[in-house]
Amino acid sequence: MNTSNPFQIPSCFQRTDLQQRRRERFRRGVVAVVVAMVALLVILLIEGCVGEHTKTSTVAVGQPEAALTRTTTVESKPAPTIPARPVASPAIPPSAAVKATPPEFVYTVKPSDTLIRIARLHHTTIKIIKAMNSLDSDMIAVGAKLKLPSV
Q1: Whole-angstrom Cα distance, residue 112 to residue 57?
Q2: Which long-range contacts (CB under 8 A, 24 or more apart) does 113-120 make?
Q3: Is 91 a member of any domain?
Q4: What is the pLDDT of residues 12-37, one digit of tens each?
Q5: Which domain does 27 fall in, by range?
Q6: Worst-scoring range by mean pLDDT, 2-6, 36-40, 94-98, 130-134?
Q7: Pick from 2, 6, 73, 91: most CB atoms within 10 A?
Q8: Cα separation of 59 and 115, whole Å?
Q9: Domain for residue 55, yes or no?
């Protein structure tokens, strides 16, 4: 007498069913990893855009909108010379007239710099920086050398 259950799946079909479940599990795992990687890339892209936006907005502070797309080069002009005045009394040495001008140092403009930021960092004003460097506008080029008064 055959005592096998008529509703039981034969063993040859059970193996294929097990393999099919493993394949399906593997596919789900691969899809989950791909979705996680795409989500990570999207998050990093958004972070980069937000960071770039804050850099751009700090550059734009105090500058016209055209300054973001166009820069002018700052030509270095020689410092104005102070004509020597005739000294009436020999008590004041001639080198004292040269020391009357404030000492200065040269600052190299970085990509995120603006005249406002440079002036605040070095405790001076935009007018003084523009006067010392013979600048006509607020636009400065990256890598330009600016003369600043020393504090």
Answers
A1: 10
A2: 113/140, 113/142, 114/58, 114/59, 114/61, 114/62, 114/63, 114/138, 114/140, 115/62, 115/63, 115/140, 116/61, 116/62, 117/58, 117/61, 118/146, 118/148
A3: no
A4: 666 777 888 899 999 999 999 999 99
A5: 9-60
A6: 94-98
A7: 73
A8: 10
A9: yes
Instruction: Judge whether 97 and 82 are in contact, CB under 8 Å.
Output: yes
Q: Is 62 left (phi over 0), alpha (psi -120 to 50) or beta?
A: left
In angstroms, rounded to a whole number, what is the distance separating the alpha carbons of residues 108 and 142?
Answer: 8
The phi and psi torsions of 104 (rounded to 5 degrees) equal: -135, 160
d(CA 42, CA 89): 76
The total number of structural domains that make up the chain: 2
Asked whether the beta carbons of 138 and 119 are under 8 A apart, the reply is no
